[in-house]
Amino acid sequence: MHTLDHKLARRVFDECLRQLDLDEVPLRTGGDRERVAETLAELVGASGHDPETVLSAFLRDVAPAIIACDTPRFMAFVSCVPSKTSILFDILVSCFTLHGISWLEATGPVAAENQALRVLADAAGLPAGAGGCFVSGGSSGNLSALLVARDAGLSRHGGQGARPKVAVTADAHSSIGKALHVLGMEPLLVPTDDHRLTGRALRETLAREPDRDDVVAVVATAGTTNGGLVDDLAGIGEVARQHGLWFHVDAAYGGAGLLAPSVRGLFDGVEQADSLVIDPHKWLFAPFDCAALLYRDPPMARAVHAQRASYLDAIHDDDADGMGNPSDYAYHLTRRARGLPLWFGLAVHGTDAYRDGIENTLTMTRYAAGRVAGTEGLTLVCEPELSVVLFRRDGWGWDDYEKWSARLLEDQIAFVLPTEWEGEPVARLCFVHPETTERLVDEVIATIAPELDGAGGPSMLIDG
Predict the structure, then answer these.
(1) What tens digit of pLDDT does each residue of 280-320 get?
(2) What is the mean pLDDT of residues 82-93?
């Protein structure tokens, strides 16, 4: 098992290069579960198989059984669009068996990851002492940050009282509610008028809350998943400071906008955050799985997360120098050096290239919104702030949108899913691929428009 099969290595590397060399990754349709099950049924057992047999089965039946996310035609979820450079370096990270647990074991990888974290911290305007680590995703980052928020709040109250509460809105990411459940905290729902949490709404909710001392934190969102909207970070931060609340900003999706001058002003106030999550695997062109978790005051997080045991004493021997280990800042110990592909991409291409890629998706978003607004029979739900476009077609219900979505995928035009907005079904396009073009946007809009706007031909009607 630990002897290199050079023939297999060449075959694997050839397939990697073939995939990376594609001009456009095929969208695909998700695959046939029964066929995949049949292929896998006999492959794992007491005795092994010829590597070519297993690799061929993978390439024939397993790898294609997906809906590819790294294509401009993937507009359903906030997808992962890694640069070719970061993918190549991710291979190297695995080949070198690099991890990022502690300074003792991984000085080089930890230092490089911290350099990438510093780029994000500086973009957010966090102080020089801010720091943290990379985790698997926004869910892990939110859970880890809110654990620190809970313990900090309980400490202020001497560990007494009822279950801690966290101020949130209905538009917060689903992982926030799950994190509160895991941590034994309750949500304090703040009503909103336009799907954005504001400082005023938070202040009014706190004034009405009879158990005000139980509220320990507030979660703001910088780029809501459903609508791509940014909360009033400056106002929320001010109220949080006045009331002694931990201020957590979930910018897992939208945080890439910090590098884009055209939308940077939306994030004013993020510099007040006590904790911040940004997922480079969403809109910063890093491969899965990579989320940055940053703290204004890292020692507070270390006090909560650092694991202590006799067999770990060696990695904590240098605690006095203030340079905590990556394993000290989240609910994890063993961790892959998952921030290195982002670091390599930043070092090779420079932050200006990232800025330009993000700005292109924002330009395409505005173009799509303009096409919708200019097409009779389509209604823009709200002006996009980041890279999500919500719109409705007059007279359509859930069944119509779902048939439209299925047809688009079947015809390999795009992967698009409807969502719910204020109790009604709407179409939703999410742009994160920097190579999205006006032509592709036009192609997608044409499939739902009652008639092509100015093009002189019929659209792909699916409701007769």
Answers:
(1) 999 999 999 999 999 999 999 999 999 999 999 999 976 54
(2) 97
CB 391 within 8 Å of CB 372:
yes
Write the single-letter amino acid at 271: E
φ, ψ at 120 (rounded to 5°)? -70, -40
* Residue 374: CB atoms within 10 Å: 13
Burial code (b: 16+ CB inside 10 Å, e: under 16) for 92-121 equals ebeeeebbbbbbeebeebbebbbebbebbb
Q: Are 70 and 434 in contact (CB under 8 A)?
A: no
**Nearest partner of 416 among 424, 299, 408, 195, judged by Cα:** 408
Average pLDDT, the chain: 94
Give start and end residues of each alpha helix (H) in 105-173.
107-124, 138-156
Cα 373 from Cα 130, distance rounded (Å)? 43
Between helices 340-349 and 107-124, what is the axis angle to 10°?
A: 70
Q: What is the largest CA-CA distance in the chain?
A: 75
Q: Using one digit for the tens of pLDDT, what is the confidence trace for 362-395?
A: 999 999 999 999 999 999 999 999 999 999 999 9
Give the integer Cα–Cα distance in Å for 179 and 252: 15
